[in-house]
Write a structure and sequence with these properties.
17 helices; single chain; 464 residues; 2 domains; mainly alpha; 69% helix
């Protein structure tokens, strides 16, 4: 009898034992895959419980150390770190050692279901590198293994639940709770007190810096309204430093020493920079000339003057606005006389012009520190005769403009001095912060919104 040759392109029919074994193995593989997942989850849960027990116990020790030595980390950080650390350890262990192969699942199933290595043998026969020739008994093993797995309830035989040792987690958790509830902060090394002192100091320093920035902003707006461009640029630069904007590097010889991270020291160094910038602006040649001129005007004499007494008095008192008004009054008087012909002037009016010329000439000599004002007053005094009253009016107009320019310079200098005074007051406040915070009953004041004992800007240290 000859064997039947199959047509071209077709494989010979498989024996029925091979098909039966393949069908049985597919059923076994599906059940073993579910077992493999449950074994992986059970192992991960077991590792998680062990890692939690270790990490929570360590957290209890660290929380106790936090209460005793005030480490500065915080109880919440230790607890959160313990939980995250346990989860991270479990993930790493599961990634390295948690892989469950299908053969491992088969051996575990044989052991728990007492199948005497039926499933392990079936997996070996199917996945062996060199598959042996199929024998009838091998097909029977696969079918028997599949039949045994069909009625098994995997949730009961391969449960995913915490191990019995997980009850030990209650001990370190209870220890953490008891420490948090009943153990006070002892702070043996005084680290906590130092940190609180630095935090209070930093808070007070920030309040002082905010108040100084607000006052400087008011001065900057006032300078902008009066069109003091240079002063506004200076105040803006000081506010930029306060806001932490980058500034050009300073020479090594002018650079202050490092502060070491102390908030008050850092603030005092920054205030010293501001004070130096304002003093540099105040010591400019123009401001020094204005200061010398104002000082010279205070020495004006009021003796033997009649027509310019009020002008001299206002200049002596530094009331430049009133001085401008007095010059305008003189201009109106001279303008009234200039409408008359020289022949129409009465002897009294001529005598008045002569005395006014003498008094303006004296005032020009007495105000020599103000060169522009002195020249214009001298020109007005020389022009006070019947033929040149119009030139005298022009000279007085120039004097009034000189006083206006002087008044602007004085206003700018006053704003600079106000800025300098604010910076120095803030420095005094900062130096007294530690004493105010350490004083008994140092609490927030409901009226001013600051700690009691901290002076407001403009007040002397020690006021409330």
């Amino acid at each position: 009898m000859t064997a039947q040759i199959p047509p071209d392109g077709e494989s010979p029919p498989r024996p029925p034992e091979r098909e039966r074994a393949r069908t049985a193995y597919r059923s076994i593989a599906a059940r073993l895959e579910a077992i493999r997942r449950r074994l992986f989850l059970a192992g991960a849960l077991r590792w998680l419980c062990a890692d939690l027990l270790l990490c929570v116990s360590l957290a209890a020790v660290l929380i106790a150390a936090e209460r005793i030595f005030s480490l500065g980390v915080g109880e919440g950080v230790w607890i959160g770190g313990a939980l995250l650390g346990a989860i991270a350890f479990t993930i790493v262990r599961a990634a390295i050692r948690g892989r469950v192969r299908i053969a491992d699942a088969a051996r575990a199933a044989d052991e728990r279901l007492a199948l005497k290595e039926r499933l392990a043998t079936a997996v070996y026969l199917e996945e062996a590198p060199r598959r042996p020739a199929l024998e009838p008994w091998q097909c029977l093993i696969c079918e028997d293994g599949a039949r045994r797995l069909e009625g098994v309830r995997l949730a009961e035989r391969f449960p995913v639940r915490p191990p019995r040792t997980s009850w030990w987690l209650l001990a370190p958790a209870a220890a953490c709770a008891l420490i948090l509830l009943f153990v006070p902060e002892i702070d043996v090394l005084g680290r906590g007190a130092r940190r609180r002192a630095v935090a209070e100091e930093r808070e007070a320093v920030e309040i002082e810096k905010e108040e100084l920035a607000a006052e400087l902003e008011k001065i900057a707006k006032e300078a902008e309204e009066k069109q003091f461009e240079e002063l506004k640029k200076l105040i803006d630069s000081l506010r930029d430093r306060e806001a932490g904007e980058p500034r050009p590097p300073e020479p090594a010889s002018e650079r202050p020493p490092e502060s070491g991270g102390e908030p008050k020291k850092e603030a005092l160094i920054e205030l010293a920079r501001k004070e130096d910038a304002i003093l540099k602006a105040l010591s400019s040649e123009r401001n020094e000339a204005v200061a010398r001129a104002i000082e010279g005007l205070q020495k004006l004499s009021l003796e033997d003057v009649d027509l310019t007494r009020r002008l001299r008095q206002s200049l002596k008192e530094g009331d430049l606005e009133k001085s401008r008004e007095e010059i305008e009054s003189l201009e109106r008087d001279i303008e009234t006389l200039s409408r008359k012909r020289p022949s129409e002037l009465t002897p009294e009016e001529q005598d008045r012009l002569r005395r006014l010329s003498e008094e303006l000439s004296r005032l020009a000599r007495d105000s020599a520190a103000l060169q522009g004002l002195s020249r214009s007053l001298s020109a007005a005094a020389d022009s006070l005769d019947a033929e040149s009253l119009s030139r005298a009016l022009d000279a007085l107009e120039l004097s009034r403009e000189e006083l206006e320019a002087l008044a602007r310079q004085v206003d700018e200098t006053e704003l600079l001095e106000r800025s300098l005074e604010l910076v120095r007051w803030t420095k005094e406040d900062l130096r007294s912060i530690r004493q105010a915070l350490d004083s008994p009953g140092s609490e927030w004041c409901p009226e001013c919104g600051r700690r009691r004992g901290l002076p407001r800007p403009g007040e002397k240290p020690g006021s409330t």
